[in-house]
TrEMBL record:
One of its GO terms (molecular function) is methyltransferase activity. One of its GO terms (biological process) is methylation. The lineage of its organism: Bacteria, Bacillati, Actinomycetota, Actinomycetes, Kitasatosporales. This is Class I SAM-dependent methyltransferase. Keywords: Methyltransferase, Transferase. PANTHER family: METHYLTRANSFERASE, N6-ADENOSINE-METHYLTRANSFERASE TMT1A. The keyword Transmembrane helix does not apply. InterPro entries: Methyltransf_25 (IPR041698), Methyltransf_Superfamily (IPR050508), SAM-dependent_MTases_sf (IPR029063). Its EC number is 2.1.-.-. The keyword Nucleus does not apply. Residues 47-143 form the Methyltransferase domain.
Amino acid sequence: MDTRGFYDELADRYDLMYADWDASIRRQGRALDALLTAALGPGPHAVLDNACGIGTQALGLALLGHRVTGTDLSPVSAARAAREADGRGIALPVAAADMRALPFADASFDAVVCADNALPHLLTARDVRAALAETLRVLRPGGLLLLSTRPYGELRRARPQSEAPHVRTGPEGRTVTFQLWHWHPDGERYDLELFQLLPTGDTWTTRTSTATYWALAEEETARYAGQAGFADPLWHAPADTGFHQPLLAARRPARSGRWTG
């Protein structure tokens, strides 16, 4: 299944992977807002979430007053993000768009968020460079990139085969979500099988989705950001931010020039 198909099919049940999706929206919004405020000063800021999915980070930031725009490769996910925003009385313009070709003018945003392990869906150096170059282009000089991935330096050494099941208890009953990871021979890419067991009366319905990721280690991701023109790339650990994944913060230089690290 390609990346768009993976998220199109998952959009109606993505929130079931969280024990409490609304609490996660608020928690992630606060964590990202703290980094935005520290780097750019008090908001509100014009923020692009270029892999918004069903809106987890975009909604959290919009609830805190930021002017957020969401894009996602999956039009089904982006449409759900818009519905979720409407239901909460939040202004959140969204569009279906590829992060390698964003439909915005140069220097349109104060910050770009690319969270929840979205960049690793790009499986080649060329595609990663294209996405980061587009991100740089739509940022104003001095603007901020916040990018999160799994801790792939550690994971590539351990090469886990699965992730522990998560159980969510909601009005519909209990939902069980778990993952299997199938590493490619290169030791860098892997296929993820996502299983969800959904209650159906007295039995269960199993839904399965598959996607491929490139497990770029943190120093490699920072190097690609530098090659794209970002300055001062710095990783922040979850223990320091309250965000569930490591976060890379980097700036578009206020003046012309490229960082080479």
